Amino acid sequence: MPTSASAAIALGDVTASDSTLRRFLHGLPGVDAVGLEARAASLGTRSIKTTAKAYAIDLAISMVDLTTLEGADTPGKVRALGAKAALPDPTDRTAPTTAAVCVYPDMVAVAKEAVAGSGVKVASVATAFPAGRAALAVKLADVRDAVAAGADEIDMVIDRGAFLAGKYLKVYDEIVAVKEASGAARLKVIFETGELSTYDNIRRASWLGMLAGADFIKTSTGKVAVNATPANTLLMLEAVRDFRAQTGVQIGVKPAGGIRTTKDAIKFLVLVNETAGEDWLDNHWFRFGASSLLNDLLMQRQKLATGRYSGPDYVTVD
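Above: the chain sequence. Below: its structure as tokens.
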């Protein structure tokens, strides 16, 4: 195994040209789809006991990027979301805050004010989310507007058309430019795995994003038919594990879309623990992109504490 310094130099060389980057990405080991899905399914059957479940629920709450990304979003809705992120259960102040609220760039200032003093981060989607169909100058302006409004984190989408056409260096350069425009904000790079067609492409996109400086790699926008799955998240967890082994640099993972229940969340936490390891069991390195997940986590938390489920008015409707 090379040292981190030598590995970084070697990996830096692969981005010198389109041909070297293509050679590297297509030289990555092919994904055994049957084996990947079987392992993800097997890990999904793991059960945990009551004490561990209580810990897992609180950990999952602390990892939620509470999200609203609708055309009908209003300042009032975003303020309510921020209040919920900062105090998920008003009847139990021992419940942890969520990691972040995630909104469109024009709602960043509202969200920032709503979570002030709570420790909750404000994440903003940018780069012509969710399709990413815009000129680079427009995308960078989108990012700079969000950062100027106070965004702590930027969730960008890659140009899937360029990626699928094999224009890897174009995608790489765009991520690098967005990273620079993000300044001190952490950058999450969204692949839209449901549009990448193959597991091999997801592995290539993961390495491409990490090489370009992503702080997180993220499965999806939540706006297409196929979003986060145990299998595609497992594949991305393997990628960040292997990247750190080669470079010494740790990258986060964010599955998003379709994760709605406590049972789902715990399955993903098992994937993290068994694949990347305990170092990733922290909201600095793992997030859930979700809107309705938090409600179920709170309901299950209340059930563990009281032995009964609360009424339908226990949680707010997001």
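Strands lie at 64-67, 100-103, 121-125, 153-157, 186-190, 216-218, 252-254, 288-290.
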